[in-house]
Specification:
By secondary structure, the protein is of the alpha/beta class. The chain is 26% helix and 22% strand.
């Protein structure tokens, strides 16, 4: 991660404390971590927490982090996911250098470790089918029972395992199991399966292998082969740690990594289960993995979230053992905070209402030159043309304004941002609908000039009709309207909690002309409206599309208070 884009580490946590102790005691000279995704889908915000931790720890302690793909299941994996994952991790700002690996790099060594277990009498070839294995395994309250094939000799097991490798048996007919303890209170130690037959071409090794190791066997040994010192994973792997340690202890592993678990990310108003994300995509509830409403990293990027906001979010939520539910506004506030510092300003009218300034010269145009960013003068200025006819937003006019309404209404004045004070003199209707306002301006009130004796509280944005750029704007919101999707459904169906207003598409928006040169993924603050990003997929130079990244302020606070009161 470049220093220019890095988020400084300010917090401490129990994992970093362990690492500091290990370095201070001389247990390790260099810290080695890894990020090991399976290439069977795209990364989401939950993965960002692990990425930030593993790469961040390695960087902080001058170590290294392996970018390792756990590609042991060719049935579900694909090279397109490998490329997508690499792109996402790079976007987050991390670089693995020469340390990109695959579990498949170690298939031969893993096989040798498996034979080592067999030769030590610690593994056997199982002939029971999958259903029978489950029956023999027992339950959380009842011990399992030994397989009738558990007593096979070392010689028979070796012969069978080698024949499995040679492809002499069909899928599902045999597996290799560890020989541990069928009565263990930890069900993961009841002779877990280590290898299974899969006569499927692998995306990297093609048809070289027809047996593949399972994750629990592969993971710890891959860690060891890479010299990983601290294997950091989420809490669901805590019960797997005894198996992780058992495998490493029973073979000639080059080193003994330490597995440490931390709580996974639970984010309200979202689902982060890969199974549920796949369902959203396959059933057409979203456009795809990069739908801006999805909390995939590609979705967040397309929506306009800067990588720095995601890293800041990971810092804010911290690392702990305790499971907790993070409020969505924490992520949204991180986006606001980062974008406020970097996003150039512009004016855009989402729902145009025409205003004719009757006392302004008909053929006159003048330019105002506001700053692109009020806090960053180095970003320069932009030219905003002004003319007799302008657009304002429909929401900035009320025929019958409520109390303390400081925007435009009949007979009232408002300041046009960067320009003049105008007064509404006449309202034009078509079929009882307001279609145009006739106003007058005060030349003496040009922005920057002192308007003696005038107190105008309202300031609204606008664009010149003559110079406006027509755009499509997509107002994205949270994908779910319930804080815990599916929790209150009798069948746990999270689909029923989809937010029907998660996107609103407005096709005839008007923006200031500077936006005509915007490029895909450029982000702007539309003044008084929110932060918006040029859509990287659908936007074209002649047909700009902007996605709302986030509103200027939290619009869900009241709703969340209501939910918390109910719970």
């Amino acid at each position: 991660m470049s220093d220019n884009n890095s988020t400084p580490v300010t917090a401490t946590d129990f994992i970093r404390n362990i690492i500091r102790e290990d370095l201070a005691s001389g247990k390790h000279q260099q810290i080695v971590t890894r990020f090991p995704p399976e290439p069977n889908g795209h990364l989401h915000i939950g993965h960002a927490k692990s990425i930030h931790l593993n790469f961040g720890v390695a960087k902080e302690f001058s170590g290294k982090c392996f970018m390792r793909f756990d590609d042991t299941n060719p049935v579900k994996e694909d090279e397109q996911y490998v490329e997508g994952i690499l792109k996402d991790v790079r976007w987050l700002g991390y670089d693995w250098g020469k340390n990109q690996t695959h579990a498949s790099d170690y298939f031969e060594q893993l096989y040798e470790f498996a034979e080592e277990l067999i030769q030590k009498g610690k593994a056997y070839v199982e002939s029971l089918n999958a259903e029978e294995i489950r029956e023999f395994r027992g339950s959380l309250t009842e011990p399992g029972k030994d397989s009738p094939y558990r007593k096979r000799s070392v010689e028979e097991n070796l012969a069978l395992f080698r024949k499995m490798r040679e492809g002499e048996y069909e899928d599902g007919s045999l597996v290799l199991r560890a020989k541990i303890d069928m009565s263990s209170p930890n069900i993961n130690l009841r002779d877990p399966v280590l290898y299974r037959i899969r006569k499927v071409s692998h995306q990297r090794t093609t048809d070289k292998w027809c047996i593949y190791p399972l994750y629990d066997f592969t993971h710890g040994l891959s860690d060891s082969l890479e010299g990983v010192t601290h294997s950091l994973c989420t809490l669901e792997f805590e019960d797997h740690r005894p198996l992780y340690n058992w495998i490493l202890a029973e073979v000639s592993a080059p080193c003994l990594p330490r597995q440490i678990e931390f709580s996974r990310l639970n984010l309200r108003y979202s689902v982060l289960s890969k199974r549920r994300l796949i369902q959203l995509v396959e059933e057409g509830h979203v456009e795809g993995w990069d739908d801006p409403r999805m909390l995939t990293l590609s979705g967040l990027r397309r929506r306009g979230y800067p990588a720095s906001a995601v890293r800041l979010f990971c810092e804010r939520i911290g690392i702990s053992k305790s499971a907790n539910n993070i409020e969505m506004n924490v992520l949204e506030d991180c986006a606001r905070e980062e974008l406020d510092k970097t996003a150039p300003r512009a004016m855009a009218v989402l729902k145009p209402l025409k205003v004719v300034i009757t006392n302004y010269p008909e053929n006159q145009t003048e330019e105002f030159e506001p700053s692109r960013h009020p806090k960053n003068p180095e970003m320069g200025t932009r030219k905003v043309p002004f003319s007799r006819e302008i657009y304002i937003d429909q929401d900035d006019f009320r025929e019958d304004p409520p109390p303390k309404y400081f925007r435009l209404s009949p007979g009232k004045e408002v300041r046009l941002r960067y320009a003049y004070v105008i007064r509404c003199d006449e309202v034009i209707y078509e079929k009882d609908k307001v279609v145009e306002l006739r106003c007058t301006y005060d030349k003496a009130t040009r922005s920057g000039a002192k308007a003696e004796g005038r107190k105008v509280k309202g300031i609204i944005h606008w664009v010149s009709t003559q110079h406006a750029v027509t755009t499509e704007i997509r107002l994205y919101d949270r994908l779910f309207s319930a804080p815990n999707p599916g929790r209150n459904d009798p069948e746990g169906n999270f689909i029923n909690d989809l937010n029907p207003e998660s996107v609103e598409i407005i096709s005839d928006c008007k923006a200031e002309p500077e936006l005509s040169t915007a490029n895909p993924e450029d982000v702007f603050q539309f003044e008084r409206v929110g932060y918006f990003c040029v859509d990287a997929k659908d936007s074209r130079p002649d047909a700009l599309v902007f996605n709302r990244t986030v509103t200027l302020r939290d619009t869900w606070a009241k709703l969340e208070q209501e939910h918390s009161g109910q719970n």
